[in-house]
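Postdoc handover notes: sequence design on the structure in folder B. Input tokens:
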């Protein structure tokens, strides 16, 4: 009987949301973020609750309890290429991004079941990965919960969470060198040889420059490019 009652209440909530979704704004707005990374992209979809004068972590969101890392539907993160989070390899795919707040450290969870409302149906058995990061204590108040990419380079970037006076940072990397070199070698066997792109990649990644511009047509412009690259810090 209790399960039946819970199911009925849940259906009523979902029905109300579907009926009134276009009449009133959501209390927690939804944000979609897409970040180019390496040879692929990282996508985030999450809802952003506000503090509104409440005690958040250690209060409304208890320490030691699984959180959806946002509001409404669980936060979803998608990778189009393999990446590493804090040294843990993650294949391309879509995951639910859950977390467990802590006063001194957070547990970050990637679940294989990304499509769910809140953390009510979360099961540890569905975890793909768990790891810990340090809690960051923020001096300035972050009123609206924020997930953001920062320090983005060709093969490294950070994913930051900030809300109220607490946050965390996840360091990410991607290994693209073997793929890029294979693509360059393959393209060099076609009629449209990517001399310029190869030259830039070799220069920026401390490769053997002689190999990058062995062709006379590239040698003719390589000196000018390298002087230009030094000037602009390419």
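Designed sequence:
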């Amino acid at each position: 009987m209790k399960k039946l009652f819970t199911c009925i209440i849940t259906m009523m909530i979902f029905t109300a949301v579907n009926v009134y979704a276009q009449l009133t704004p959501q209390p927690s707005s939804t944000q979609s973020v897409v970040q180019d990374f390496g040879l692929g992209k990282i996508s985030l979809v999450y809802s952003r609750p506000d503090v509104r004068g409440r005690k958040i972590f250690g209060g409304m969101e208890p320490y030691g309890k699984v959180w959806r890392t946002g509001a409404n539907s669980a936060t979803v993160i998608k990778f189009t290429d393999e990446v590493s989070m804090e040294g843990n390899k993650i294949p391309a795919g879509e995951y639910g991004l859950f977390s467990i707040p802590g006063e001194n450290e957070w547990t970050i969870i990637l679940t294989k079941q990304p499509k769910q409302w809140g953390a009510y149906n979360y099961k540890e058995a569905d975890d793909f990965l768990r790891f810990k990061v340090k809690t960051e204590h923020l001096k300035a108040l972050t009123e609206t919960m924020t997930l953001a990419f920062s320090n983005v380079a060709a093969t490294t970037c950070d994913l930051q969470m900030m809300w109220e006076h607490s946050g965390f940072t996840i360091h990410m990397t991607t290994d693209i060198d073997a793929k890029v070199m294979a693509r360059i070698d393959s393209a060099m066997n076609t009629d449209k040889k990517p001399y310029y792109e190869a030259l830039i990649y070799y220069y920026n990644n401390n490769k053997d420059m002689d190999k990058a511009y062995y062709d006379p047509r590239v040698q003719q412009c390589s000196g000018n490019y390298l002087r230009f690259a030094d000037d602009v810090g390419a």
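Context for whoever picks this up: The first helix runs from residue 2 to 20. Don't rerun without checking with the PI first.
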